[in-house]
User: Which sequence fits this backbone?
């Protein structure tokens, strides 16, 4: 399998409660020429349901294990910090890289998420062009440079 083929099979799971932010991240990833399949969840409970294939996410073929999770911290029901803690406590899920992509720039959030095992912490850029640049760099790093475990 060539690197390009394996690159396309990696699913990105994006957890963000803000519909506009989800749309902007999707458009920014597409603009950065990323061909990976993307799935979206709106809160930490949906994120955990997806990862455990529960409820509406029970079809494993339709909702495969992601190769990368983009996680917002401030979400309803179960916030990103709680979800991250659960992911990293689960022996099957903890190998999935989690990148926090949030509006928070609080030092406490940065320290706490790294302490919980986050792979990277990125403050959401304010402009769309800056978001495209971040997504381009993120996708190059995670899908061209880094070796990821097979889902």
Assistant:
């Amino acid at each position: 399998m060539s690197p390009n083929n394996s690159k396309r099979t990696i699913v990105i799971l994006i957890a963000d409660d803000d519909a506009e932010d989800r749309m902007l991240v999707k458009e920014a990833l597409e603009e950065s020429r990323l061909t990976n399949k993307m799935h979206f969840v709106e809160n930490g409970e949906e994120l955990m349901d997806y990862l455990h294939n529960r409820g509406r996410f029970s079809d494993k073929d339709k909702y495969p294990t992601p190769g990368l999770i983009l996680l917002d911290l401030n979400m309803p029901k179960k916030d990103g910090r709680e979800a991250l803690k659960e992911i990293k406590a689960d022996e099957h899920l903890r190998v999935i890289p989690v990148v926090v992509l949030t509006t928070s720039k609080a030092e406490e959030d940065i320290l706490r998420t790294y302490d919980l095992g986050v792979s990277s912490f990125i403050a959401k850029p304010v402009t769309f062009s800056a978001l495209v640049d971040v997504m381009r760099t993120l996708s190059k790093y995670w899908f061209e440079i880094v070796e990821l475990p097979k889902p």
Q: What stands out?
A: The beta strands are 12-15, 38-41, 68-71, 98-102, 120-123. Residues 128-145 form the longest helix (18 residues).
